[in-house]
Amino acid sequence: MIKKNFLNTYKKINQLNPQANTESKALEDTSADKPNIYRSKEDERLIKEFHFAKFQKNLDNTKKNNKLKELLEKEEWNEEDVKTLLDSLN
Q: What is the mean pLDDT of each run of 10 residues along the chain (90 residues)?
């Protein structure tokens, strides 16, 4: 589920229950200022570096993959091409 849809669902539920509405607004006000999804700045830095390294590795593998290059140059794909694509991404 998309995060925006998830939050909108909670807003709709809170509108149906006025007592819960005041509690959720207090939670929204504190979380809207600065969402803290990391335990510390060090954790944030490490996690971001890890994801960037994974991205760089995938980008490098994609650039070196000749089968993928050939597929991207094709205008129309058949089932074999799709299977080749999925195999090359694993």
A: 67 65 53 73 92 91 84 88 81
